[in-house]
Specification:
The complex is a heterodimer of chains A (about 350) and B (about 475). Chain A is mainly alpha-helical. Chain A contains 14 helices and 4 strands. The relative contact order of chain A is 0.18. In chain B, the strands form 6 sheets. In chain B, strands 6-9-10-3-11-12 form a 6-stranded mixed beta sheet, with helices on both faces. A 4-stranded antiparallel beta sheet of chain B has the order 2-1-4-5, with helices on one face. In chain B, strands 14-13-16-17 form a 4-stranded antiparallel beta sheet, with helices on one face. The relative contact order of chain B is 0.12. The chains are: A mainly alpha (about 350), B alpha/beta (about 475). Chain B: It is found in: Cell membrane.
């Protein structure tokens, strides 16, 4: 009996495969059609240099989105990443100007690598605060990260008094030059920021698909009680994902500050929403437990290539907002179609 | 096995059939939950449906009440073939159902819950006074002293079940389906419910009753129908059946209620000392109050109690999910109160939870990932999981607990309820436990786990000792 039913099942699957392929690969097809349409509309779109420029724009959103994916897989949300990005950029900027230690009467100039490390640590710390509030004190993720979003933005503004650090290049005699390297340099013709994005994506992908932490994350996002009773340390998982999200926001902040060669406290406003959009377009479920790095990367590229494409063909930025919104709604609509199919089976 | 078509339709003394299922089948993907079932509901009589978990009882009831549509077959209402578009459609035609799981809004009052979705409309919006009066009447009928304005969350579980019953009664339907209505009721409350059922049948209401308390169901039933593996295996009027008949038909040819295997109890393996656990929802009373208990190796200790009596909380504390206020839990001589759930699992303690949807399964993951969830560490090599070792573990567990599935990659939702329960059991067996906390073996089934789970039950005492909570009463 079981053999016949299995083969029948395969036949059924074969029938639906085209629909399934379109539905499950929707972000991929969306990306291809975006590239095709804009290549047709503008001769400048389909060039290597343009793709590299667009990819370096995508890098910022993409890095944020991967952090956001981890949080969303856990069934949470992190609204603070845009502010953490700004805070970390500003902190990096401040360190490049030198830290004055009044007690010792010295000004400390950190080398660039140390600035990067300390900045990522700050991002991780803010993320850990989110995680502790949510996991231990049971503050709903939406509220906790909303609060931290304001606090982080406020500290960034206080730090610079609302101004922007315009000089991040450092001084050769202090040995702290090279901050622009992250944003401007290329390895084998590829911008460093894009390489950073792909490295982050690769590591996150490996972690999710192959490590036991990845399995813990999917399980606790899918059913936290069942995961807990199976021995998954759900609180540790929760704190870890928010910490990672904060660290990735710091990385994005470094990349952005380096690309702009300036660090301002208002950078990254509403970026958290773009990151959420990328994750959702990539097919992740906001209820947790479903989603992949591959999908999220496609989602980030869909948003980035779409908005840059609209700029290239000269569509007004107001229309860009409308288009982006429409794409997000469409993606969520398809998510609910896909998941309601699965849900009906249960 | 009896074929599915030969039901004795016209025995003398039978009332007319008001609702009938003819050759009703329901498939979920490759899984056949129902395979062509015929089922009759008679006016003014109680028909009881018996069967193991996963036999298809709830599926059949959901089809008869319009909650889901059959894959094939026919539903006949008053002699005419009908298709129910939805549960509301079925309710409008006089069929109502009391679901196994409570479907109340805890923040609303008893009155608002009873009239949810069909509020009595007056000239000034909802006529709360009329609703309240009707609620009061229903509560009197059920001999329950509940004020209609009490929020449902303030009621104990048994009273919540009464509200659920009252809601089904308030519809005044001709056909009433009761899927495990008594799981949280005390003996007196069950008596009252039976009185109400007798009143209803006297008025000509047809009743379908599902219960795992076989003796209790025998008190009230007029006909018995037994389902097994999605097929109807037996049908008889009350006068021709007894407990043995039911169990034999439920379980099949290799039925042997038997006694637990003879094992000489060894030394004390698990000891609970003066355990006190506060209410996890924050109410100011203890759900477990200074409880002490010894369980020896090889021993099966059964803990009885109604739903809401603290059985689940006791075991969840032993397993490590809930924190105790005071007292200690000693496993094989070591105090384990401070250990995490994972550490307790590593020491050979396993909890098979009662509610598989809430506590057992991760619906977004595959059958295999669910099976391996509690033993991830055993196939992790360095940073990464070893896929081959995991696949081997999954295959072994699928065979050992005999899960019917397309393979480890199938989605957990594609399995039938009984097979999902086996996955929950297999997940904990995969951790090679020596001690079990087993709440409601095979989810409230009286005899299910033994024959079907023959791979796990008899082995359990050999490996150590299971510790189980059977169903109340």
């Amino acid at each position: 009996m079981s053999e016949t039913s299995i083969s029948q099942n395969y036949i059924k699957r074969g029938e639906f495969s085209l629909v399934r392929l379109l539905l499950e690969g929707r972000a991929f097809f969306a990306l291809i059609s975006i590239v095709a349409v804009f290549s047709y509309l503008s001769p400048n779109y389909f060039t290597v240099s343009n793709f590299l420029i667009m990819a370096s724009h995508v890098a910022i959103y993409g890095i944020l989105a991967i952090g956001m994916l981890l949080v969303i897989l856990n069934g949470g949300i992190d609204l603070s990443v845009g502010s953490v990005l700004a805070l970390c950029g500003v902190m990096a900027g401040a360190m490049m100007q030198g830290i004055e230690l009044q007690a010792l009467g010295v000004i400390l100039y950190l080398p660039v690598w140390a600035v990067v490390v300390v900045t990522i640590a700050i991002g991780g710390l803010v993320g850990a605060v989110n995680g502790v509030l949510i996991a231990w004190f049971k503050v709903p993720a939406f509220v906790a990260t909303l609060g931290v979003m304001y606090v982080a933005r406020g500290i960034a503004l206080l730090q610079t008094n609302g101004l922007t650090y315009n000089n991040l290049s450092g001084k050769p005699e202090l040995g702290n030059t090279g901050f622009e390297w992250i944003g401007f340099n290329r390895l084998a013709g590829i911008p460093i920021s894009v390489l950073v994005l792909f490295a982050v994506a690769l590591l996150a992908g490996l972690m999710l698909s192959r490590s036991s932490f990845g399995r813990w994350l999917y399980a606790s996002g899918g059913n936290e009680r069942a995961a807990e009773l199976s021995g998954v340390p759900v609180k540790r998982v929760k704190i870890t994902v928010y910490t990672l999200s904060g660290m990735l926001a710091a990385v994005a902040g470094l990349v952005l500050a380096s690309q702009l060669t300036s660090a301002g406290p208002t950078a990254g406003t509403t970026y958290e929403l773009t990151a959420i959009a990328a994750v959702v377009i990539g097919g992740a479920a906001l209820t947790g437990g479903r989603g992949t790095v591959r999908g999220t990367m496609l989602g980030a590229f869909v948003i980035g290539f779409l908005s840059d494409g609209l700029v290239i063909i000269g569509v007004s930025s107001y229309w860009q907002t409308v288009f982006t919104g429409a794409v997000i709604v469409l993606a969520v609509l398809m998510n609910s179609i896909q998941y309601s199919k699965v849900a009906r089976k249960t | 096995m009896t074929g599915s078509s030969d039901i004795p339709f016209s025995s003398p003394g039978m009332r007319e059939v008001v609702l009938a299922a003819r050759n009703v089948a329901k498939s979920y993907g490759a899984v056949h939950a129902l395979k062509g079932v015929n089922f009759d509901i008679r006016r003014g009589q109680v028909t009881t449906l018996f069967g193991e978990n996963g036999a298809g009882k709830s599926t059949l009831m959901k089809i008869l009440s319009g909650v889901i549509q059959p894959s094939s077959g026919e539903i006949i209402l008053d002699g005419e073939s009908v298709i129910f578009q939805s549960a509301t459609d079925a309710r409008n035609r006089g069929i109502s159902i009391i679901h196994q799981e409570l479907s109340l809004a805890p923040n609303l009052s008893v009155r608002d819950n009873i009239f949810m979705g069909r509020e009595i409309k007056g000239p000034m919006g909802v006529d709360f006074a009329a609703e309240e009066q009707l609620t009061r009447k229903l509560m009197e009928e059920l001999e329950e002293d509940i004020d209609p304005l009490t929020p449902v969350e303030d009621l104990r579980l048994g009273q919540q079940q009464i509200v659920e019953i009252a809601r089904a009664l308030s519809v005044e339907s001709r056909i009433l389906i009761m899927d495990e209505p008594t799981s949280a009721l005390s003996a007196t409350e069950v008596e009252v419910l039976f009185k109400v059922i007798r009143d209803l049948t006297a008025k000509g209401v047809a009743i379908v009753y599902i219960s795992h308390h076989l003796e209790e169901a025998l008190q009230i039933t007029d006909h018995a129908v037994v389902l097994r593996d999605g097929m109807m295996t037996a049908y008889a009027p009350r006068s021709e059946i007894d407990l043995n008949w039911i169990v034999r038909n439920m379980v099949g040819d290799n039925y042997d209620l038997g006694n637990p295997p003879e094992v000489q109890p060894g030394p004390v393996a698990l000891s609970v000392r003066n355990l006190t656990v506060p209410d996890p929802k924050g109410a100011d009373y203890n759900v477990v109050d200074r409880l002490s208990l010894d369980v020896r190796a090889g021993e099966i200790v059964c803990i009885y109690g109604l739903m809401g009596a603290g059985r689940t909380e006791l075991l969840e504390t032993v397993a490590g999910r809930l924190r105790q206020d005071s007292g200690e839990v000693v496993l094989e001589g070591h105090e384990i109160s401070h250990l995490s759930i994972a550490e307790r699992i590593a020491r050979g303690l396993a909890l098979v939870p009662e509610d598989r949807q809430r506590d057992g399964l991760v619906q977004t993951m595959s059958v295999g990932q669910n099976l391996s969830l509690a033993s991830i560490a055993s196939f992790t090599r360095g940073l990464f999981t070893d896929r081959k070792a995991e696949a081997a573990l999954i295959d072994r567990m699928i065979r050992e607990v005999t899960v019917k599935t397309d393979g480890g990659g199938a989605m957990i939702g594609s399995l039938s309820g009984g097979n999902q329960q086996k996955v929950v059991i297999g997940k904990m067996l995969a951790t090679a436990p020596r001690s079990y906390c087993w709440t409601n073996p095979a989810a409230a089934s009286t005899s299910a786990p033994r024959p079907k789970c023959s791979a796990c039950w008899p082995k359990v005492p050999g490996r150590g000792w299971p510790w189980s909570i059977p169903h109340p009463r």
